Amino acid sequence: MTKVQQKIGLKALMSQYCEQKGLSRADFAVRSGVSGSTVSAIDNEQWDKVSSAMVARLESFIKNDSPESVYNTADFDSVMRLCDAACAHRLMIGLIGDTGTGKTTALKAYSCRPNVFRVTFEKSMNPRQFFKSLLRELGIDFEGNVNAMIARAAHEINMKERPLLIIDEAGKITHPVMLYLHDLREKTQSNCGVVLAGMPYFRDNLQKNAGRGKEGYSEFLRRINLWHRLEGLSASEVMYIAREQGVSDERRLKEMSSKRRFGDLMNEILLDKVLKNDI
């Protein structure tokens, strides 16, 4: 593929991404962290103004923010229903499951819908960095103190029709960010649903700190209307996915049937393909 072909491919990816999420080009520029002039150059195929490094950066952004291969497993369907319920009834829902159970894959798929905003919390984030990330996801380039950022985010969320805020890796949320999230929920609860997704220790830690009387934990825990834990893959789901991925050897299918986490299964399938030189 030539560099020009790669850039034309990026234009198509960008258009598809914006269409799926109902974004304007200005929204895309803010969300991806690039200038409006760069997005305009891509749209107008002014390739001399778009470097190969920029192409790689935007391709990576779109790929990381887009769903991988999805299968309608029981867990996947339950995540879709939970997100629907959060939107329809403006609930705050806790979604928990071990790593590799497909939480992020399912949430990425749901976040392709308009007015769904997904932010991944990173352990190193301070409150200002977190709300900067949220504002960027909302398509807003805004500077200010944390309280001003919360107020601006709440205003933007309340302007949307049936918005949903998804916070992935919620188990890593620090105490200061949790207190600020309490403020955001106060300002948006009449209009916005929230899904908090994390490892099982997310709920355990909230309950433990609430029991110790640590500031804000009891109030935050009470705001979570319901919890749902992913169960993992059934044996029949494993067999179906493996066959769809090209695994036909009955011995290998039997070995894989004990896998309950989607990530573990896909790693096994990848290993098979590598050993067979299929990739």
Structural notes for this entry:
It is a single chain. The protein is α/β, with parallel strands linked by helices and 279 residues long. It has 3 domains: 3-64, 434 Repressor (Amino-terminal Domain); 74-229, P-loop containing nucleotide triphosphate hydrolases (Rossmann fold, 3-Layer(aba) Sandwich), CATH 3.40.50.300; 235-275, no CATH class. It contains 14 helices and 5 strands. It has helices spanning 3-21, 25-32, 36-43, 52-64, 74-89, 103-110, 127-137, 146-158, 175-188, 201-211, 217-223, 235-244, 250-256, 262-275, and strands at residues 92-96, 116-120, 164-168, 193-198, 226-229. It has a 5-stranded parallel sheet with strand order 2-3-4-1-5, with helices on both faces. Helix 9 (175-188) links the parallel strand 3 and strand 4. Helix 5 (74-89) packs across helix 6, helix 8 runs parallel beside helix 9 (175-188) and helix 10 crosses helix 11 (217-223). The protein is flat. The two termini are 18 Å apart.
Keywords for this entry:
279 residues, five-stranded parallel beta sheet, flat, 3 domains, alpha/beta, Rossmann fold, 434 Repressor (Amino-terminal Domain)
In short:
With 279 residues, the chain is of the alpha/beta class.
Chain-wise SSE layout:
Layout: H1 3-21, H2 25-32, H3 36-43, H4 52-64, H5 74-89, E1 92-96, H6 103-110, E2 116-120, H7 127-137, H8 146-158, E3 164-168, H9 175-188, E4 193-198, H10 201-211, H11 217-223, E5 226-229, H12 235-244, H13 250-256, H14 262-275
